[in-house]
Design a protein that fits this description.
This protein is of the alpha/beta class and 408 residues long. Among the domains are: 13-105, Fumarate Reductase Iron-sulfur Protein, Chain B, domain 2, CATH 1.10.1060; 286-404, Rossmann fold, CATH 3.40.50. Helices cover 51% and strands 7% of the residues. It is built from 24 helices and eight strands. Strands 2-1-3-4 form a four-stranded parallel β-sheet. A four-stranded parallel β-sheet has the order 6-5-7-8, with helices on both faces. It is globular and about 65 Å long. The model has no long low-confidence stretch (mean pLDDT 94).
């Protein structure tokens, strides 16, 4: 695809990147076949190829309309199109550039501006989000259903392991997971403890940056990145083996730190080192398969349906590892039809695009429940909460299932 960049973006980092990505696109349309919003709406402009044309027009200086912004807003950033694309178009990076331009050139309605500002201020800030979640959980029974859907029932926390080990790995606790689903982090720590590895949480590490980044608050998102690097760096210098991610959405974002901070002379090199160390638990635990088989016994759950989050299978390109590991531990894992499609959670998407989000959730649950599982498992806090809001079948993180099977 030939481009002729407008003056406002020519010879800028965003312009150079957009130009390189656009030139890879050959208009084949394979991406439309795997785009959830195109499947729902049937509009070319609500698929990757159409959005790429809109972004091309933007960077070439065409007027940017509210309609253009709406089509970009509807994108889940699931990156399924990247897995499908035969030309290697990095659509996820391109759409963020497009969104940045629309935020600068299009004035949003007041209601949207207020909602997005509240989400960007509250959700990544655990000091605000945690007490708000606790209050919601206390009054959950009397909340309207739409609000109750966003407030998971409060978990009774497991006990954090107290043993000290020579081997240590950092773990990102996350901004919403400790209050919404604390046992995901605790279960992770307990599984690694059983393997002789101590998980360490840096107290000053916070949101991975994804929330503000996808809402268009780019400068604030970069501040989140820098704050995490600062929090982790002393532990990296002390020899931490890895930075564990048990929320695939966070993992996909942290693995982009080097790219996002590539022009920051104070953080570019550190960001590259952080990316080298960052690994999803699904990448690490298969290395301990034999040891896990030896120390897992209890199997009250024998059959699960697995929803692989988009941020795991498309964002991080991690496929098959969860299924293989659970299978080795004696659990039958069933993948639903169209397991490559998004469940509709997509960070704050269920709040900014509820109609599309719930349509995708119901579609996903129909296919998951057709597998007749005892439990639905996934690998991202947002997906788990979103799916659980639409079903009475238990939905959990797969690491919680592994922890439950521990016999030590």
């Amino acid at each position: 695809m030939q481009t002729n960049l407008a003056d406002f973006i020519r010879n800028t980092p965003d312009g150079d990147e957009a130009d390189a990505i656009l030139r890879k696109c050959v208009h084949c349309g394979f991406c439309t076949a795997t785009c959830p919003t195109y499947q729902l709406l049937g509009d070319e402009l609500d698929g990757p190829r159409g959005r790429i044309y809109l972004i091309k027009q933007m960077v070439e200086g065409a007027p940017v309309s509210r309609s253009t912004q709406t089509h970009l807003d509807r994108c889940l950033t699931c990156r399924n199109c990247e897995s499908t694309c035969p030309s290697g178009v990095q659509y996820g990076r391109l759409v963020e550039i497009g969104r940045k331009i629309t935020e600068e050139k299009v004035h949003r309605p007041l209601g949207q501006r207020m909602l997005r500002r509240v989400l960007a201020s509250v959700v990544p800030n655990s000091a605000i989000f945690t007490p708000a979640m606790r209050l919601g959980q206390h009054f959950r029974g009397v909340l309207p259903k739409k609000l109750r859907d966003k407030v998971p029932a409060r978990q009774r926390p497991l006990e954090w392991p107290s043993a000290k080990h020579e081997r240590k790995m950092l773990m990102l606790a996350g901004c919403v997971q400790p209050s919404m689903m604390p046992n995901v982090n605790i279960a992770t720590a307990r599984v690694f403890d059983a393997l002789g590895i101590e998980t360490v949480v840096a107290p000053d590490a916070g949101c991975c940056g994804a929330i503000r980044l996808h809402l268009g608050y780019n400068d604030e998102a970069l501040d989140d990145l820098r704050a995490n690097i600062d929090a982790w760096w002393p532990y990296v210098e002390q020899g931490a083996e890895a930075i564990l991610m048990n929320a695939s959405g966070c993992g996909a974002t942290v693995k982009e730190y080097a790219h996002l901070l590539r022009h920051d002379p104070a953080y570019a090199e550190k960001a590259r080192r952080i990316v080298e160390l960052t690994r999803d638990v699904a990448e690490i635990l298969p290395e301990f398969e034999e040891q896990l088989v030896a120390i897992t016994r209890r199997r009250s759950v024998h059959t699960v349906a697995f929803h692989p989050p988009c941020t795991l299978q498309h964002g991080q390109q991690i496929r098959g590892k969860v299924e293989q590991l659970l299978g080795a531990l004696g659990v039958e894992v069933r993948l639903p039809a169209d397991s490559h499609l998004c469940c509709g959670s997509a960070g704050t998407y269920s709040l900014t695009q509820p109609r599309l989000s719930y349509a995708l959730r119901d579609q996903k649950l129909e296919r998951l429940q057709a597998q007749e599982p005892q439990v639905i498992v996934s690998a991202n806090v947002g997906c788990i909460a979103h799916l659980q809001s639409g079903t009475s079948t238990p939905v959990a993180h797969w690491i919680e299932l592994v922890e439950h099977m521990l016999s030590v």
